Amino acid sequence: MNEVNAKPVIFLAFAQDREDKVGYLRNLPTELDGIRKALQKARQADLCEVVERANTTIDNIIDVFQEYQDRVAIFHYGGHAGSYELLLESASGTHQLAHSEGLVSFLVKQKGLQLVFLNGCSSQQQAFDLLAAGVPAVVGTSQKIADDVATSLSVRFYSAFAQGATIERAWAEAVDQVKIEKGSNNFRDLFGDDSAGDQIADRFPWEIYFREGAEVVKDWNLPEAVENPLFGLPPIPKTHILPETPFLFLRRYEREHAEIFFGRSYYIRELYNRVSDANAPPIILLYGQSGVGKSSLFDAGLNPRLESDYKVIYIRRNQDKGLHGTLRFALEQEAAKHEEHSPTISAETNPSSPFETQPNRETLRFLEEAARNANDRLKNEIENLIERIEAFRLSEDLQVQSAKKQAPSAPQQMTDNSLLAHWLFVESQSGKPLIIILDQVEELYTRPNRELPDELADFLVALRGVFGSQAQRPRGKLILGYRKEYHPEIEEDFKIFLLPRSNVFLEPLRRKDILEVFRGVSKTAALKQFYNLSIEDDLPVIIADDLLEDKESPVAPVLQIVLTKMWNAAKQQNPQAPRFTVEQYQQLKKDGIAMGEFFAQQMRQLRHWNADAVDSGLALDVLHFHITALGTAGARSLKELRETYQHRQDILDTLVGKCKELYLLTEAQHSADFTSLTHDTLAPVVNNEYNNSDKPGQRASRILKSKMADFSENGSDVWLDEADLALVEQGDKGMHRLSEQEESLLAQSREKRRQRQRLRKQLWAGGIVMLIGIVASAVLAFVKMQEAELEARRAKSQFLTIKANEVATTDITCAMRIAQAAYALFEDDPPIPSIQALSRIYDRRNDESFYEKKFRHGDGVNSAVFSPDGQQILTASSDKTARLWSLAGETVTKFTHDAHVTSAVFSPDSQTILTASWDGTARLWSLAGDSLAVFKHDGDIYSAFFSPDGQMILTNSSDYTARLWSLNGDSLAIFNHAGYVLSAVFSPDGQMILTASSDKTAQLWSLAGNSLTVFKHDDYVTSAVFSPNGDKILTASRDLTARLWSLTSEPLAVFKHDDY
């Protein structure tokens, strides 16, 4: 089917009653003409095809559907109707009835049909029948309707629909127009002249019905149906010249790149519709995975299309100010631009709800109620906020009284409770609704401000002040953007504060989005003329299929890498007319295009530039310095870098510059003084490389990190031994500047080394004389001892040889070990019997099966388990694979990770497999090797287990957390420690979780993530398990003890060892 034939069809069918002159509908031709004109713009834009039948017969209806088949998306009928029929015309000019039961049966078979619009009298029952049969949406009428109102309603509906509105929104706008024209309470004028008065007093006669389970049709619209979702949106203002390259590698797209930003048209349309819909919630929460392109969508996609009709402010959370402060500062700055022309805004004239004025008793009552319904984390924040409000109420009252007396002509200083006033002020001065996009909200968690412990609660109270009262809300909207892993917490808190909002989940690029990127840059007239890029026909589909093969890969950044590299290669081959070819792409695939491969390539180029900077570990340390404690990308100022690496000023600036040149670092926060990783998806790659690096800088850093906790507690009793001290000193040039505590540890260790060196010199000087005296006697004794030892070894070898021959008949493995021991006693000149015994045993091993089966990996095997039914074996290896084996030793399935696979287990029902890896993921697989779900941490994952019922998954990681997951990958709870979580297990009944950590504790948790009990040791707790009946806990620690506890942490027994 070609592109033209794929357009949806809107079928307009009209019929008159030509026999009954009284029943003649004078407005029917006007309705048809009005709808025709309303749809003209959509027809010209190739969004739809309109088929009209002015004197519709039954044959006409069947003929149109047979001709256009499933392309008919909307069937509109205008004319007389009833509960069980439509009045059509006949070829002879008389009227003809189309009975409901036949019409319903016919229409429900039309698979493309989205809406049936029955714009005739009393068609409600037919609407119900169509819904019940399976039509997604139907418009029907409850009684006889006014002809002129029917015309106005339908024309307005199709006018909005032709502009790109959804079915639901177009209907709402049509109803609103009728109510504006007739009055919202004047229902009598909407009905026909002969309708019963007692039936028309309080209802709107038209109704749109959506079939239960098919509500998605509410959002159906023409632009998306023909893959042109930007139709009808304002064009991008020509405010910037086109950049030199149409692809930005891993850089974020900003406002100036709007004309080359493609791939997110559907989300631009969806966000635009929500912003422009006055009836939609005023807060929009947009969230997606790291690297999906949220910031680019905001700045380069949505913002340029809003700015002609809206005042738009795009901001990103400022760590120093917090969320509330960032929003407040942006409004303050915008209000200041209009200060000279501003009207008076005072406490008396400022329209406000109780949340905009100084915090009063109603505010406090609301917060107290919210605290009662909140979880522990948010409850603490709210209670702290209540204390602050109570403490400052008197101060706030005095400020308001002072403000009334001064009555400034414009807001002079933003206060915590005047967001609404300033928002309305900006809207009144600009004459446009104000849209504020606040991005990177997740930094509330990833880069918290310790001085703002109640940051989220404070922010949500402020939003209640702006959006809490529907009557006093601003016209504009607030859009918040953040990473998807923080959505459950944010959504829960918004729910508690009763904030009106809608959610938009930004999916990774889909196939049609990737194709849009290629189509946009090569087909758009202005870009075609400027870049002159052509693309081989099959290439976009090939690249899209390759990128989408791995469902968990960061599609957008990898696509950016591919396109930028291909552009550079194409420009070198033909600067005037670059062309993308399949051959270029295949070569690029050979070179490697994934994020990990990209990082490895760039590091090789960096090493070619300066081998010492890479080999010492300095370059990796600098990149890792741009990652937060939670493993996410963070920005660093040039001042921070120079302070942290002050001992490497000789190379730091040029190293940072080279990292920018290689797209490893980029300027952050619109300032050359700040740098960040080029893309969020680089953070886990850098983190993994750093954690597994054996370069001097990283070795030294790990040694210091492992000692610092002990040193902080025990001070002078802790120091580095000489070997570790030497490694730290060797790695000094490849790591950050040491902290004061680290310097103290190093100084103490060096002093201990000097003491040991002095002691050795003293022992050497005092012992030299004694040594000469004992040498002579020692030599004689040594000769005698050697003779005795030789005889003893000979006797022992003979004994072992005899023993090996005896055992060989029953245990070939044991016999071989004994014979090897006899042979090893005389490796240089073994006795003949030992040689003969070992040869016989080896020969026998060749004749007999030594091991029943072998299950070989390419590196160490970390775990091996039987399936619950005992018919298969599952192994996990450092060769980056887990493998499923038959008992015959044949590989059934291989499960691949990007780093060591630390564990692999079967589900209780033996139908799925769970693996854990140092690549930061645990993965759920089918037995055939299909990836079913991925569970991500920000560090190495040590193990992963199923719950006893097989419905949940528990993982533990070096990122200081254990996590509880659903089988589809949704995070259910996070269990936080202050160190690596070395083990995590379910209780036998599956109702509790027990973790062990390097923070010297084991903890008992509820499934909701609440800590129930803490079990303390004096060093790392390496493991913790439940007793079989679940009423006791056993822990093991590097403090040389294992301990038995009650569930309430009462010590029951201590088991001491001499080493750990």
What is the CATH superfamily classification of the largest domain?
P-loop containing nucleotide triphosphate hydrolases
Q: What is the CATH T-level topology of the largest domain? A: Rossmann fold
Number of domains: 6
Strand content: 15-25%
Can you list the strand order of the major beta sheet?
Answer: 2-1-3-6-7-8
Major sheet summary line = 6 strands, mixed
CATH class of the largest domain: Alpha Beta
C-alpha Rg (nearest Å):
38 Å
What is the CATH architecture descriptor of the largest domain?
3-Layer(aba) Sandwich
> What is the averaged pLDDT score?
83
| Intertermini distance | 71 Å
Number of strands: 38
Helix content: 40-55%
Low-confidence stretches are 1-5, 343-359, 394-417
In one word, what is the shape?
Answer: elongated
Report the oligomer: single chain
SS summary, helix count: 33
Q: Helices and strands: which structural class?
A: alpha+beta
How would you describe the overall organization of this protein?
The structure is a single chain. The chain folds into 6 domains: 217 residues, Rossmann fold; 243 residues, P-loop containing nucleotide triphosphate hydrolases (Rossmann fold), CATH 3.40.50; 70 residues; 135 residues; 101 residues, no CATH class; 196 residues, 7 Propeller (Methylamine Dehydrogenase, Chain H), CATH 2.130.10.10. It has 1060 residues and is of the alpha+beta class. The N terminus is likely disordered. The chain has a 6-stranded mixed sheet, sandwiched between helices. Strands 10-11-12-9-13 form a 5-stranded parallel sheet, with helices on both faces. Strands 19-20-21-22 form a 4-stranded antiparallel sheet, with no helix packed on it. Strand 20 and strand 21 form a beta hairpin. It starts with 8 loop residues before the first strand and ends with a strand.
